[in-house]
Automatic annotation (TrEMBL):
<feature type="domain" description="Enoyl reductase (ER)">
    <location>
        <begin position="13"/>
        <end position="345"/>
    </location>
</feature>
<comment type="pathway">
    <text>Secondary metabolite biosynthesis.</text>
</comment>
<dbReference type="GO" id="GO:0016651">
    <property type="term" value="F:oxidoreductase activity, acting on NAD(P)H"/>
</dbReference>
<dbReference type="InterPro" id="IPR047122">
    <property type="entry name" value="Trans-enoyl_RdTase-like"/>
</dbReference>
<dbReference type="InterPro" id="IPR013149">
    <property type="entry name" value="ADH-like_C"/>
</dbReference>
<dbReference type="Pfam" id="PF08240">
    <property type="entry name" value="ADH_N"/>
</dbReference>
<comment type="similarity">
    <text>Belongs to the zinc-containing alcohol dehydrogenase family.</text>
</comment>
<dbReference type="InterPro" id="IPR011032">
    <property type="entry name" value="GroES-like_sf"/>
</dbReference>
<keyword id="KW-0560">Oxidoreductase</keyword>
<dbReference type="Pfam" id="PF00107">
    <property type="entry name" value="ADH_zinc_N"/>
</dbReference>
<dbReference type="InterPro" id="IPR020843">
    <property type="entry name" value="ER"/>
</dbReference>
<dbReference type="InterPro" id="IPR013154">
    <property type="entry name" value="ADH-like_N"/>
</dbReference>
<protein>
    <submittedName>
        <fullName>Alcohol dehydrogenase superfamily, zinc-type</fullName>
    </submittedName>
</protein>
<dbReference type="InterPro" id="IPR036291">
    <property type="entry name" value="NAD(P)-bd_dom_sf"/>
</dbReference>
Length: 347
């Protein structure tokens, strides 16, 4: 077995440094993965800049891995074996352990947050799924508060899990940022749960939002789009659930609250802390994308849905380069802004 290396964050607001790292050993319900691709999320740039969520220094972070299993924990053998192609969501965010960070050649992944990746899907494509999937399931299905983290209050949408054969539930959800990684995945998971999705994104990403399953799409650059969203929901006549805001900026909050006001309130699920003041008829909260609620989806849904083409690896990869030294460039590009793609580094 070759030695491990990782891109370490030595202190906040500095570039990551590629150094040797201990070879991870999986616990009983874990697998150790040789990474062939990792993906970058806006959360990662925030961690690098501020050190938020870092529990021990130096740190290895990152959430998305795709690769091959090289070691299986004693209780994980029922689903995984050495050599399996897998995708997984790493949990350094809550554990703080370096071996749980994605930006390394070898990473530990909890068996309950991993799934077999079909042979026909490249690692660089499949790596778009893990973090976005976990966030989507937490946004849609969590019924109780998530992990105890400062400022985190998971909104209780309590919607059904996705199904390979969903039945329409007569409910509509607005997804703001429908072409983002988390937005497009939440559209897929909501649609697979029988929810009708109205997506808000830029016009040049309409095809991506529709590919994810959005029933209707509105251009956020249209000055009348809020009124058009409200009119479209009313015309369809289904029960309005609320807004999932995958952007979570002051502007999107303002527009989301206007939509909620038109329907007498509802849920406002955010990827950042919600507005400090919301009406009493709006249940607002920030999702936290690590929760055991996602376990049944990882275990029972992800692999067959990928095999049947019912779960798509969206948005498509933007491959920055190969090697851990490319992670810094990928983080910089993520901070600068990406539209309609997922930044990926090959290993």
């Amino acid at each position: 077995m070759s030695a491990n290396q990782a891109a370490w964050l030595i202190k906040a607001d500095t570039p990551l440094e590629v150094r040797e790292a201990p070879m991870p050993t999986p616990g009983p319900n874990e697998i150790a993965v040789r990474n062939f691709a990792v993906a970058i999320n806006p959360l990662d740039t925030h961690m690098q800049k501020t050190g938020i969520f870092v529990q021990q220094w130096p740190a290895i972070f990152g959430c998305d891995v795709a690769g091959e299993v090289y070691q299986v924990g004693a209780e994980a053998g029922g689903r995984f074996k050495k050599g399996d192609r897998v995708i997984g969501h790493t949990v350094n965010l809550v554990s703080g352990r370096p071996e749980d960070g994605a930006y390394a050649l070898h990473t530990v992944v909890q068996a309950d947050k991993a799934a077999i990746l079909p042979d026909e899907i490249p690692f660089t494509t499949g790596v778009a799924v893990p973090f976005a999937l976990e966030a989507a399931v937490c946004a849609l299905s969590v019924k109780v508060p998530g992990p105890s983290m400062p400022g985190v209050s998971t909104p209780a949408l309590g919607l059904p899990y996705p199904s390979l054969d969903p039945k329409p539930l007569g409910k509509t959800l607005v997804i703001y940022g429908g072409s983002s990684s988390v937005g497009s995945m939440t559209t897929q998971i909501a649609t697979a749960a029988g929810i009708r999705v109205v997506a808000i994104c830029s016009a040049h990403n309409f095809a991506l939002a529709r590919a994810a399953g959005a029933a209707s799409v509105f251009d956020y650059k249209d000055p009348e789009f809020v009124a058009k969203v409200i009119e479209g929901i009313r015309a369809h006549g289904e029960e309005f659930i609320g807004v999932f805001d995958a952007i979570s900026s002051p502007e999107t909050y303002e527009n989301g609250l206007k939509i909620l006001e038109a329907f007498g309130g509802g849920h406002l699920a955010c990827v950042h802390p919600p507005p400090t003041e919301v009406p009493g008829n709006v249940k607002a909260g920030m999702i936290f994308a690590v929760d055991d609620v996602a376990t049944p989806v990882w275990r029972d849904y992800v692999t067959p849905a990928l095999q049947q083409g019912k779960l798509k690896c969206l948005p498509p990869p933007i491959i920055v380069g190969k090697g851990l030294d490319k992670v810094n460039e990928a983080l910089q590009r993520c901070e600068a802004g990406v539209s309609g793609g997922k930044l990926v580094v090959e290993m």
